[in-house]
Design goal:
NAD; D-isomer_DH_NAD-bd; elongated; three-stranded parallel β-sheet; seven-stranded parallel β-sheet; alpha/beta
Amino acid sequence: MSGETRDAILRPEALERLAQVADVQPALLVTDFGADDPAQRSALQHTEALFTGWGCPPLTADALSAMPRLRTVVHAAGSVKHHITQDVWDRGITVSTAATANALPVAEYTVAAILFANKHILESARVYRETKSRVNLLRAFPSIGNYRRTVGIVGASRIGRRVAELLRPFDLRLLVHDPYLDEESARALGAELTSLDALVAQSDVVTVHAPELPQTRHLFDAGRLALMRDGATLVNTARGSLIDTDALVKELVTGRLNAVLDHTEPEVLPADSPLYDLPNVLLTPHIAGSQGGELHRLADAAVDELERYAHGLPFAHAVDPRTLHQQA
């Protein structure tokens, strides 16, 4: 992992737990498997498990050749697609991820965004700020509130499922779309399975949790955005590529739709993008995922997995190479 990642996630308590189940060298940080470093080469020759995080270089055949005893990779972050290659699977190396732990803060952010969106927080705050006087809410926002609103969840991913779970206590109608989900599984989530276009057309809030795949690029194009109800809100905590940014901007500048965007394409918008200043847009800097103290949850989850491995138990959050193409 990168030095910045190590310093952020591996607090002393996590290192102590690591030392109880593994012969670990905390001072040895590998950021380049091909580095000309005798100490690193010697350590890698005897390595059975890699504890990885953001910034881990790809585990190519050349990298793996330096680790003849490697049996498992425990990733203290979400997606493993950046460093787990086909060579890893070909060697029979097992892989675990803390993606489930990383899904929790994203789901929490999403639920907050949904509840705020239905309460018209952006609009009411703007009106209050501009008038600096009592606001006639019944007149200004007759449709305000969360009671029996319809929320559409696009993607029954770890995050999408957690969002559905967190929304259960509220009086909301939940719709879900996922090409790999059946009706029984949707009902178990407390949601109705429907087509994507039907979900978009019926929802007061649409929240996106699909993976970034070739077939999901611009999943929300001009045509699909046009299906959204007037006044509806689009929440995106998934990858920015799932939404056609130009098409979304055209809708948002008219004021017809609202948006809460934690991811955009490009990830950092140009300085002249109207999305920074539109009153109907809440734009955040990729903050929904694990940040600050939440990073310690990722380390704890990864150490839990390493403890299971050390005791000969199967991983609780193993990565299945057969379904990895469906995931972020």
